[in-house]
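Example S7 (structure tokens).
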């Protein structure tokens, strides 16, 4: 039986598209996309998900104000209604309470554009450039209550080239993100949590 995957986005959703296309392209992929949830009604990824035939829902965080738990309860309602087994965060730009990842313990993944544990949080590509690193990349990790700190299940490395701008580095990392996340999901959905290096 295929695992049911819900993907949570806030923006353009290019990682979401790479995940959905990978699942749809291979009848043997051990997971299928059942929902794309966005906390932003204007997220560009929503139309892309619909074009791929995936159900979408918006849970706008703004009406909930500072009440993160009520916002998360609404997301949980949608995720459960979709029957999600695995949640993939893909450019979801909200800090959550601990209870959100705790509820999905061991079943929620995130992708972050740095070689974790280096450069957590915002602007990791700029952080890597500022630190004078020779290489950077992206990491897929299991989501735990501490930001960008859960067990890493996949990592892909790119070089940092002389004179790189943040846009150039981000694009080089993004190309790897689109390969890494589907590769990790394929193994994770099959129950293999060993780490992939690319
Ligand atoms: C990616 O760089 C991802 O690593 C980070 O947010 C960005 C989302 O981009 N968490 P997209 O919406 O998937 O295009």
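Recovered sequence:
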């Amino acid at each position: 039986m295929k695992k049911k995957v819900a993907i949570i986005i806030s923006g353009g959703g290019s990682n979401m598209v790479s995940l959905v296309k990978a699942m749809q392209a291979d009848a043997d992929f051990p997971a299928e996309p059942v929902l794309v949830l966005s906390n932003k009604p204007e997220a560009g990824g929503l139309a892309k998900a619909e074009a791929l035939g995936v159900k979408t829902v918006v849970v706008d965080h703004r009406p909930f104000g500072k009440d993160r738990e009520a916002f998360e309860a609404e997301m949980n309602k949608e995720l459960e209604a979709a029957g999600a087994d695995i949640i993939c965060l893909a450019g979801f730009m909200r800090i959550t309470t601990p209870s959100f990842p705790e509820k999905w313990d061991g079943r929620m993944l995130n992708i972050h554009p740095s070689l974790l544990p280096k450069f957590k949080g915002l602007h990791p590509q700029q952080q890597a450039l500022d630190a004078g690193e020779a290489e950077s990349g992206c990491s897929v990790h299991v989501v735990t209550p501490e930001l960008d700190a859960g067990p890493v299940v996949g990592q892909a490395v790119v070089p940092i080239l002389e004179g790189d701008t943040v846009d150039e580095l981000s694009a080089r990392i993004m190309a790897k993100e689109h390969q890494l996340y589907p590769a990790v999901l394929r193994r994770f959905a099959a129950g293999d949590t060993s780490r992939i290096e690319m």
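Notes on this example. The CA atoms of residues 110 and 184 lie 11 Å apart.
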